[in-house]
Every structure is written in C-alpha cells, then in structure tokens.
Design goal:
With 246 residues, the protein is mainly alpha-helical. 69% of the residues lie in helices and 0% in strands. Bound molecules: zinc ion. Zinc ion binds next to loops.
Length: 246
C-alpha cells in the first residue's frame, strides 16, 4: 500500500510542477499539453514519467538539450514522501485523504511564494474546500474549526495593519483556511513553528551572509511547513506542552 501511495505521490507531484509553473502566469493547468520551455518541443508520455524521465534524460530536454530544473524531480519526491508519511501516521482514514491534498497545496504554495512572493487565491480556495469537507465530517466540532479560521488570521491581520504591509495578504488567507481545516490549537502551534523556523533560517542566512539583513524572505513556506508539522504532530506536541504546566 505504501508503495502504491508513493507512486501516486510522484504522479500528483508532477501535476504540482505544472501548477507551480502555470498558476503564477494565469495559465490553464489541466488540459494544455506540456512543452519544453526552451524549444517548445511537445513532451511525450515517456518524457513525463516522474523522476525517471528526468534521471533518464539526465536533466536535459530530449530535443534541444536545454537543462531542466532540479526543482521538478525534487517536488515530485517531496510530494511522494509527504504522502507516505501521512499514510503511515493516519492509515486508511479521511484525515489521510484530506492531509494529502493539504500537503500538495502547501508544497505548491511554498514553491510559488519562494519564487514569486505571492500565494495564489486559487490554492487558498482549494484548502478552503478541503476544510469544508472536513467540517461536514466533523460537524459536532464545528466551533473548534471555525475558531481556527479566525485565531491566527486575525493576529496576522493586526500585524499587517501595525507594520503597514509587513505581513502578506496571502499568508493571512492561507492561515485562515488552514485553521478552518486543522482547528484553533493546531493553527496556533503552526504559527509558532513557522515563526521559529523562519527566524532560525533567516538568522542563519544573514549570519552566513547569503542574504542582507534588510532583505525580504517570504514567510509563506515557513508557515506552510508549520501547518504541515502541526497537522501531523500537533496533538502530540500540544499534549507534551500542556504536561509541562501540570
Ligand atoms: Zn527543448
């Protein structure tokens, strides 16, 4: 079962690459055939086998020899690994299905935000749909999830107002729908984890002189990583944290 999920993760990962490339350009993602970005060569089915085509072609276009970004196989492998990881934790359950879609959405957001400094509304809406499906399955807990929609998004909105745009609208919207999906305590944890991770990475990059002190780094990928970690391990982390105060 894990092997099948790994393969499924690679295939969806391949689709994520299409989304990452096309969504910021406003292009259609499902029906348009894939072409080489350099020469326009229309990729055949055997050029589109995740990871393997890249390895077989040694990262070059079959037609013109132009290099293909390592981002493609990395995104496919990352998506596949997250799917297996989720399955190993949640088994055959509705959480597994919803969190796999969530993980793919977070991965897409992370790469797009990293490259373009935007979080597309279409992916935010997609996470919102997942959250509504989850709400239908857990309607008795509706307040737990609805509070999750507001608890972090309002904090970020206040920060955005105080700092006059220091916090992106995309980050706020993403944390609202992610909170509706994972609940108020886990989205607060996700914000904490994202802030810690972002600070550690930011300080390290400044210390290593890879970036300037004033240089802007997108917060989206760190928040997305926080949401992923909190969705998977939130209950354990929060339980452990609360025990410290007993
Ligand atoms: Zn080419």
């Amino acid at each position: 079962m894990s092997a099948l999920i790994a393969i499924y993760g690679l295939i969806i990962g391949s689709f994520i690459n299409v989304c990452i490339y096309r969504i910021p350009k406003g292009e259609e993602v499902v029906f348009t055939p894939s072409h080489c970005f350099s020469c326009g060569y229309r990729l055949k089915w055997y050029d589109l086998i995740p990871v393997f085509s890249y390895a077989f072609l040694q990262g070059k276009c079959r037609n013109c020899g132009e290099s293909i970004s390592i981002q493609y196989p990395l995104v496919e492998l990352a998506n596949s690994a997250m799917y297996v990881w989720i399955y190993l934790i949640f088994g055959s359950s509705i959480e597994t299905v919803l969190y796999m879609f969530l993980a793919s959405a977070l991965l897409t957001i992370s790469v797009i935000d990293f490259k373009h400094m935007i979080i597309p509304d279409s992916i935010v809406v997609f996470i919102g749909i997942l959250a509504i499906i989850n709400l239908i399955f857990n309607i008795k807990l509706w307040l737990y999830f609805v509070v999750g929609f507001f608890v972090v998004s309002v904090i970020l909105l206040v920060i955005a107002i105080i700092t006059k745009g220091g916090m992106g609208g995309g980050d706020i919207k993403m944390m609202a729908v992610a909170g509706l999906l994972i609940g108020w305590d886990k989205i607060l944890l996700a914000l904490m984890l994202g802030a810690i991770l972002g600070s550690v990475v930011g300080v390290t990059l400044i210390a290593l002189k890879i970036i300037e002190r004033k240089q802007f780094i997108p917060f989206g990928p760190f928040l997305a990583a926080g949401v992923f970690a909190s969705a998977l391990y939130g209950e354990e982390i929060i339980g452990w944290y609360l025990k410290l105060y007993q």
